[in-house]
Amino acid sequence: MSVSWWERGVNRLSATRNAGAFYTPTGTALPSTLTVTSSTESSKMATGRRTFIIGGGCTAFIKPRATRTTEDMGLEAATKALLDAGITYDSVELACVGYCYGDSTSGQRALYNLGLTGIPIINVNNNCSTGSSALYQVNNSVKFSQAECAMALGFERMKPGSLGTSFPDRPGPTDLFIKHSLELEEKYLGKNHGPVTARLFSNAAKEYFDKYGGGVEHLAKIASKNHKHSLNNPYSQFRDGWSEEQVLNAPKIANDLTKFMCSPTSDGAACCIVASENFVRKHELENQAIEIVASALMTDIPDAFESESAMEAIGYGMTKKCADKVFKDAGFKEGQGRDQVGVVELHDCFAANELITYPALGLCPRAEAHKMVERHDNTVSMRAFRSRADAELIASMAGNMLSILAEDSKRRDTR
């Protein structure tokens, strides 16, 4: 789980509250409020330097057809990011490249098309948080003075259909979660069916509905909302705008999940460039810089296995802890800051994950995620936080993974 807080602008040199941004695994900026700066050299060493997104680029995302190579897609996304930033590749001092389906050092192969500059190129494989993990590493490299300018690139060339293991001759990294979830089915969730990963999230949705109310129709509302958002995104793999009824009537994948509630496989690439405040000023990029005020990366906590909860098994507690940390690091007191969030780009590998992640991020009480969906407080033109007159919570505005597996990490104020 990776969460970050973003903020637009570089011209504030003292601790002030201003337009900001919140970021989750697939990567996007949104209005919010905070700048974090340091007053002493010792605090600067502890907290690091200010860092900024200065450019981003993205390919269109397509069905896996083996028509494009990772080198080709990576080159396109990286070139677009460099052009957007207004810099050349020789200004980049470090790169982290994320992918799950490719041989070792595929990142080098993709970036060598831009030139042989001798920079460190680090390949990242971290499942659904691969892209945000690459960005996390790049941000830290700039924050702690390893580089003035660094690049985060992600690409994927996948196989059609349900995903399987690449190494069936050894125990899989998710075996413990699968075993735990199947045990929960036997104990209290009841029999499920379908691919094991879909069952994990279907089980979590069932637990939520049993405890707090709601039903599969709420998952249909979430999925339909995301598909409709994708109509305005030219990079989306699918731009069909499925209705709630169409989502519900799609073929069933697991007990509480239909086909249109599950993300497809996809080929595509995205890239963003992170720079220090000194680099931004030197290259006069103040008007396009988006500050990363806080960023956190976290793995599972004991509750994932000890609580006998399907929601915890898919990362509810981990997500909550990670979100709490990033709000704290951004300067908010415990439980505060959520009313400043305007847009969330939220990982929705399955619609069930989006439902459960709303309260984990603190966007609503744990028992009210389905009510938030009913009020349409997760989409355009509905006031999610009425304490801020101009704030609308827009979850997965790009259509997210139900229509597009990755998203351009840069956002401007045009949406």
TrEMBL record:
InterPro entries: Thiolase-like (IPR016039), Thiolase_acyl_enz_int_AS (IPR020615), Thiolase_N (IPR020616). Keywords: Transferase. This is Thiolase-like protein. The lineage of its organism: Eukaryota, Fungi, Dikarya, Basidiomycota, Agaricomycotina. It comes from the Eukaryota. Residues 52-277 form the Thiolase N-terminal domain. GO terms for molecular function: acyltransferase activity, transferring groups other than amino-acyl groups. The keyword Zinc does not apply. The keyword Calcium does not apply. Gene3D superfamilies: 3.40.47.10.
